[in-house]
Design a protein that fits this description.
By secondary structure, the protein is mainly α. It contains 13 helices and five strands. α3 packs across α12, α4 runs parallel beside α13 and α7 packs across α8. 55% of the residues lie in helices and 7% in strands. The protein folds into two domains: 207 residues, Rossmann fold, CATH 3.40.50; 89 residues, Tyrosyl-Transfer RNA Synthetase.
C-alpha cells in the first residue's frame, strides 16, 4: 500500500529560528519513516522581498544543511529547492487565475507584511498564496505540517482544490489537511510575547536564531519580557511572557507544559530563565555546529538537491500534465 504524502517548506535564510525548528522541522522528523515526504526550501517565495543574490544562494545551502543537521535523511525524504522544479511556477499561474481578489486580500500575512512595507508593495507579496497552493497541490499530499499561523493558507489551498475539482467535475487535486504539532506549534517573540517569533522582527533580541552563539542564546532568554511578578504559580495566571518561557521549556524538553509548571512552581522567574537558557543551548548548539559543517560541503549538498529535484519533478510533472489536459492546454 502506497504511503500517504506530506509536503512542507521554509523560506531560505541563514537566520532560521527556533520557531522553524520546533514548529516545523522537528515535526517532520516524526514523519519521515511513515510518509512519502517532500521538504523544500521555498526560494521563489523569498523573492517577494528584495534579496542579495549571493546571500540568497548561501541561504539555500544553509537551509538544506539545517534540515540534514536536524536529522532528516535524504534517502528517506525528498529534499529540493522550489525553483528547481518549474512545475511550481507553472501551476502557480494557473491557480492565480482561479483565485479571487477578495480571498487574497483577507490573507493575514499579506496585511501584516504590506503594512510594514509602505506604499511600494510588490505584487508577489499579494499573490504568493497561489504559489504556495501550487507547491502543495502538485504532490497531492494528505498532510501539510504548518505553524498555527499558516492554517489560513491551507484553507485557501483547500478552497482552490475544491473549486478546480468542482469546475471540471474531476478529482485532479487531493484536498490536504493541516498538521499542527502539539508542542511548539507557535513560538512567540521573547521581547514582544504577543507576536510570533520572526526573523524580520525589528528587535532581534526577541528571536532565537539557530545560528546564535551560546552566549547570545543565554542573553536573549535572560532578558526575555515577563511581568512584575517574581514566583511562578500556575499557567493560567501567567502573563504572555511567562507563558512563552514555560511553553518554550516544554517544547525543548518535549514534555507537557503542565509538567514544567509543576517543576518550577514556587520558584522565581530567574530560576526558570537560567534553566531554559541551559536547555536551549544544549539543544541548539549541536544543531548549529552540524549545520555550519554541512553548509561548507557545497558539492555534497548540490548532489542531494539535484537528486531531490529529479524525484520531485517526476511527481509534479504528472500532476501538471493532468491539469493542462483538463483546462485545455495542449501537451
Amino acid at each position: 500500500m502506497a504511503k500517504k504524502s506530506v509536503l512542507s517548506g521554509i523560506q531560505p535564510t541563514n537566520q532560521l529560528h527556533i520557531g522553524n525548528y520546533l514548529g516545523a522541522i522537528r515535526n517532520w522528523l516524526t514523519m519521515q519513516d511513515e510518509y512519502a515526504c517532500y521538504f523544500m526550501m521555498v526560494d521563489l517565495h523569498a523573492l517577494t522581498l528584495q534579496q542579495d543574490p549571493k546571500a540568497l544562494a548561501a541561504s539555500c545551502y544553509f537551509g538544506i544543511a539545517s534540515y540534514l543537521a536536524a536529522g532528516l535523511d535524504a534517502k528517506k525524504v525528498t529534499l529540493f529547492l522550489q525553483s528547481h522544479v518549474p512545475a511550481h511556477a507553472e501551476l502557480g499561474w494557473v491557480l492565480t487565475c482561479f483565485s479571487y481578489m477578495g480571498e487574497l486580500k483577507r490573507m493575514t500575512q499579506f496585511k501584516d507584511k504590506s503594512a510594514k512595507q509602505g506604499e511600494n508593495i510588490g505584487v508577489g507579496l499579494y499573490t504568493y498564496p497561489c504559489l504556495m497552493a501550487a507547491d502543495i497541490l502538485l504532490y497531492r499530499p494528505h498532510y501539510v505540517p504548518v505553524g498555527d499561523d499558516q492554517k489560513q493558507h491551507i484553507e485557501l489551498t483547500r478552497n482552490l482544490a475544491e473549486r478546480f475539482n468542482n469546475r471540471y467535475a474531476k478529482n485532479i487535486f487531493s484536498v490536504p489537511h493541516p498538521f499542527v504539532g502539539k508542542v511548539g506549534a507557535r513560538v512567540m517573540d521573547l521581547q514582544n510575547p504577543g507576536a510570533k517569533m520572526s526573523k524580520s522582527a525589528l528587535n532581534s533580541k526577541g528571536t532565537l536564531f539557530l545560528s546564535d552563539s551560546d552566549k547570545q542564546i543565554t542573553q536573549k532568554i535572560k532578558s526575555a519580557v515577563t511581568d512584575s511578578g517574581r514566583e511562578i504559580t500556575s499557567y493560567g495566571e501567567a502573563s504572555q511572557g511567562l507563558m512563552n518561557l514555560l511553553d518554550l521549556y516544554a517544547a525543548f524538553a518535549e514534555v507537557e507544559t503542565a509538567e514544567v509548571c509543576a517543576e518550577f512552581s514556587g520558584k522565581t522567574y530567574g530560576v526558570l530563565k537560567v534553566a531554559l537558557a541551559e536547555l536551549a543551548v544544549a539543544k541548539i548548539a549541536p544543531l548549529r555546529e552540524e549545520t555550519l559543517r554541512l553548509s561548507a560541503e557545497r558539492g555534497y549538498l548540490r548532489g542531494i538537491l539535484q537528486e531531490g529535484a529529479e524525484r520531485a519533478a517526476g511527481v509534479a510533472r504528472r500532476t501538471l500534465a493532468e491539469v493542462y489536459e483538463t483546462i485545455g492546454l495542449l501537451s
